[in-house]
Amino acid sequence: MGLSREALAGWLADDLGLSAADVEGTTRRIWTALYRHAHADISSIPGVRGEIRRRLAAAGRIDALSLDEIREAADGTKKLLFKTDEGAIVESVVIPGKERSTLCISSQIGCAMRCAFCLTGKMGLRGDLNTAEIIGQVIQARRTIDADPESRTPPLSNVVFMGMGEPLHNPDAVIPATRTLIDHEGLDLSARRVTVSTSGIVPAIDRLGQESPVQLAVSLNATTDEVRDWLMPINRKYPIAALLGAIRRYPLRQRARVLVEYVLLAGVNDGAGDVERLAALVRDLPVKINLIAFNPHPGSELSRPSPTHVLHFRDELRARGVAAGIRATRGDETMAACGQLGRPPGAEQAGARRVRSLPIASLR
Ligand code: SAH
Ligand code: SF4
């Protein structure tokens, strides 16, 4: 898992010694089995028999991650806890909607960006996930949903890179993963339903725009460089004006708008002046603002504004002609909400409890 189609063909020819006549068909069968059918067993790829099947079985396995635990919140949100071969924990969150579900996936273990409001940022960067580990979260979530019809989780059709990590700090793994997720002979997700969320690494935003047709989300979170420098240290390298430039350049064929995320922090970025400045900053840009009330976590001194104030902030933006919505908070109970993935060194995950465990072995 994780190889491009060309690399898979190359591996079959060079490492497994398949003849040129066998490579094309076997590549296609493996590709469809892995990505279209979420097939889990390398020794039983449909249509692959005999010697080729034996060589595949001897070569390894499909999944890069092992699914260790599932925690379910009262609202149906499920946090999936995976382990890498090195024993690191990778977290994804399934968020069921009315007709379709969204999967929030991780791109790194921890994060180097150290944003002041984010629990993942407190961990620092422990490592990058590779393409197989990124796609694997989607495939295994799909298997989990399919294997548990009782949960009535609607089919997975949206993937957001809003879990642990800064996806554009790991573009060599993330960009190929986005391309595989939307491949028509594989998972075939709509490019409009795959969203890469970034704290604003400007050159990598440009690269994403050139190399993959997926949706872009940008975490703005402040209206002055002074406040953003403090909340998001990456701003010292790529300040607000540079970030808005990248949004302006982002090619928007299928993706009508860029999502601008704005975490509301009481007394920090939620004042009347912020409304004015935010409206001015995005004027003439093809964006939609997504307001997120800060999700508190242990050890954080920041606080969330009242629900009335969040509504007021949205309405004030709308009154200025800005498209703005509020992101519903989901998954609080298992610490699966935005900015609540991961744990700071030494800290226990307060509030997290194992609500229900599925028989994971049966899903493999
Ligand atoms: N690193 C990427 C994607 C992961 S964070 C990024 O920063 O965009 C996904 C979203 O969660 C971001 O918009 C971020 O601003 C937001 N977020 C982080 N911590 C949060 C918290 N404690 N409460 C609410 N939103 C938070
Ligand atoms: Fe990293 Fe995003 Fe958290 Fe900032 S908000 S520390 S970029 S995961």
Structural features, described:
The chain is of the alpha/beta class. The chain has 2 domains: 5-59, no CATH class; 66-362, Aldolase class I (TIM Barrel, Alpha-Beta Barrel), CATH 3.20.20.70. 33% of the residues lie in helices and 18% in strands. It contains 11 helices and 12 strands. It has helices at 5-14, 20-36, 50-59, 119-123, 131-147, 171-181, 202-211, 225-231, 240-249, 272-282, 307-319, and strands at 66-72, 78-83, 89-96, 101-104, 108-110, 125-128, 156-161, 194-198, 215-219, 258-264, 287-293, 324-326. A 10-stranded mixed sheet has the order 1-2-3-4-7-8-9-10-11-12, covered by helices on one side. Helix 1 (5-14) packs across helix 2 (20-36), helix 5 packs parallel to helix 6 and helix 7 (202-211) packs parallel to helix 9. The radius of gyration is 21 Å and the shape is elongated. The two termini are 15 Å apart. Bound molecules: S-adenosyl-L-homocysteine and iron/sulfur cluster.
